[in-house]
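Example protein
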Amino acid sequence: MLSCRFVVVFILFFAAGHSTTVYDSYNDFTEEDHTPQLDYKNPHWCHTPRLTNGEVTCRSPRGGGHRSTLGTICEMSCDRGYRLLGRSAIQCLANRRWSGTSYCRLMRCHVLNLIPHGRYTCTRGFVVDSRCEFTCDPGYRIEGEHSRTCQHRGSWSGVQPLCSDTDPPKIKCPPSRLKVAEPGKLTARVTWDLPTATDTADKSLEVILVGQEPDTDFKEGVNIIRYKVYDQARNRAACKFIVRVEVRRCPTLPPPMHGYLTCSSDGNNYGATCEYHCDGGYELRGVSSRVCQFNRNWGGSPAECVPMEIKSDVKTTSALLDQFYEKRRLLIVSAPNISDPDYQLHNIMIQKSDCGLDLRHVTVIELLGSPPRETGRIKELLLNPEVIEGLRQAFRISRSYFSMVLLDKLGQDRERFIYPMASDELFSYIDSFLLDEEERERLELHRDFCD
């Protein structure tokens, strides 16, 4: 009796000192001090334990034939795919009841999330050992494991896969094309329809041009045009085609002897125009220009440069000057007589400069003496007295002293000299003030011709 009181006091003391403490005695057993008398004639004190979807394993202190008698301990376990809820072990108590209850609950895994652009199908839903297979929409491919299995502890094997867009888009370029350059040009304006692109996954695609824009001028030769397209997954597709521009050309046109050509555009392409020009002392005979035709031939016939014919027997000054208008410059030299010292000095300084005068398109007219013995000449060609008088009056040239009058190609009085000039000084003035850019270039090309 003393021992029973001791146990009660111990329990009360422990509870009073620790009012917030909870002990888990789930699988602990307390023996009562008072042991009831066993009825050995009827030893089955507790009902036979059962566990649906599980197994019960019991052991009795009195041996295997007394599985439900006082003190029998039974261990509870569940079949695969089930989780034990309750006590894992129970004992038959003196009150003929088991110390607890247990049952087996079907074990499930959590519901799998849907994957974008894909789906899955499972063999047994989300219970243990169910296998879920993943598939992707057209145009996508599985990245990761193709299936997951619900494991016996209620977790899925592996990790959730992804559906990735791996199929590149499709793009088709327009056909290659050939175009002839426009007349007088080395380019051609070419246009085409923009290519279309499709993709199994994306509806909106950005097509990028690599090369020259359509409806612009393309240069002669082969021009490669590329297009590329990316879908949202950065899969790439590309196509290309060729724009070929042909420049139709005529054979190179040779310049005339004693002359040269100036051509537009590239010189011998379709639509180019070449104009004929003659060197000093020569004049053009034939067409002034020719055009390169589409059939690759030059229009017209070749022109030629022939020595300039000066008609000195004309009756009027205008008839004489019209022969030089826009063709030659005139240097009119006047002296009182042939023995004038300034005139003689002038002859000494420029007597060897005929070539230089021709290169600069200059013709010299000499007016010497006074009537009735006055002479006018262009080299050996003598002028009519009426023409001589007309020149003196038109350009106010005196017979009293030596002078020179320089006229440009328009017949304008550009400069007067009252003393003889060396050829270098005269040529320097002409080069600086009277020659245009083209004449300067020609002069540079033929400067050594007179040496």
In short: Residues 2-17 form the longest helix (16 residues). Residues 240 and 389 are 79 Å apart (CA to CA). The chain has seven helices and 29 strands. The two ends are 156 Å apart (CA to CA).
